[in-house]
Amino acid sequence: MSGHSKWSTIKRQKGANDAKRGAIFTKIAREIAIAARMGGGEPESNYRLRLAVDKARSVNMPADNIKRAIDRGTGAGKDAEYEEIVYEGYGPGGVAVLVETATDNRNRTAADVRAIFSKAGGQLAGAGAVAWQFEPLGIISIPRNGQDPDEIALLAIDAGATDVDTTTDPMEISTEPGALEAVRKGLEAAGVKVESAEMTMRPKATVGVDSQQARQNLRLIDQLEDHDDVQRVTANFDIPDDVLAEATA
Q1: Quick check: do 83-133+205-244 and 134-203 share a fold?
Q2: Counting Cβ atoms within 10 Å, is residue 108 exposed (0-12), middle (13-18) or buried (19+)?
Q3: Where would you tag: which of 97, 145, 183, 199 has the fewest CB atoms within 10 A of its CB?
């Protein structure tokens, strides 16, 4: 299993846990507000907003919550405005960690993120320290549901995808950032059910760590993702199979 597929497996497991905690609503609401502020409050003309709204609906976020988040972003609401800040750091074993946040108080968030790194045996670094080790990527998830993986792969490539992983469930289609919308539309036009489509970050290369360091880094990522201000965490270490089994049990 590739490094990216391992991360996706853990992400799906954590997604179920996050939904149970209800924390996912807070994070998605901020994502919606920022997207609405940047590109307007109409999902039809604001692709980033539509992705965020689709994500909200996939976890059964109430329509009123979605509307309030859009209003907040467009200025119709009276709640605090959020800004996006990316923090960079190192986990145990020198693992590069990218932390994407949405916050209404950058001083609070910076202090909290620094403390989480420190307690986990890592350290917060300056801007540009590790960001160069990652690249943006579009990811489309397609549930297997008896569909022919080879047919899905051909349709995805024809639509402009750069890579297709048919070994996972859901299957994962990778795209260039600017091609995510076109590939999603192409698949849906061909009758393929799309489970999710989102922008993410991918390490350009992964580093090897032992099982103990992998567990330490996973704990660091868990603690970061548990913070309300943190939207997404990406790291560049390869997860040993035994640790992957533990994390997804």
Answers
A1: yes
A2: exposed
A3: 145
